[in-house]
Amino acid sequence: MTDAPLVRRHTDLAVAVLTLDSPHNRNALSAALIAQLTEALDAADADPQVRAVLLTHTGSTFCAGADLKAGGIRSGPRLLVELITRIATLTKPVVARADGHVRAGGLGLLAACDIPLAGSAATFAFTEVRLGLAAAVASLPVLVRADPRAAARYLLTGEAFDTAEAVRIGLVTAHAEALDGILAGLRASSPQGLAATKEITTAQLRERIAATSAGLEQQSIALFESADAAEGIKAALERRDPPWAI
């Protein structure tokens, strides 16, 4: 392994472009990736020349969720809560573009963004339930942003769905073709106006984080430490069905 950055950044006409660049593990939410992404978000928030953030990725996966091979079970849920909170409290809007697979905690990351977009190659699934887990922390933004009936279906079944369905249920704002127009609108907007408007639009998410994140974090840790999860994760890494699959 090299010390190459897991999150690359550059600025494009007042937009800080942050690229998840850890394709060897499908941009999984390792402690190192979360730390680098948080640092990049902080830098963008502090830069008066930056109007908005665009989060994108390399490889065929936007984010695969928790890094199941890296350990860190007890710290992972807390780190994801902190990342979702940082996106929600950033004074600048965060646009995301997913052009590949989005799984598990990656859906929490995507849903936390203010304007998530997805290309035709994107697919989505809350795979936790099939591993003996639950999308506990990821549900924080999902249950605020998406249609609750549709969210319940996909959280409970682990079914995969496409971009058209993600847009229909409100998990994704629009297809990726809308990106240029959205960025043009953000670039034309007042920094003060954007910050004040974001505070309004994220109020419900920030309230849910404050009220429920501690309990969801503890639930997630308990599930990760269970016998069912140990078997489910082992089966996933071995590319076989767990014993409860019929």
UniProtKB/TrEMBL annotation:
It holds the Pfam family ECH_1. Keywords: Lyase. This is Methylglutaconyl-CoA hydratase. The keyword Lyase applies. It comes from Actinacidiphila bryophytorum. Transmembrane segments: none annotated. GO terms for molecular function: methylglutaconyl-CoA hydratase activity. It comes from the Bacteria. Belongs to the enoyl-CoA hydratase/isomerase family. It is an enzyme of class 4 (lyase). Its EC number is 4.2.1.18.
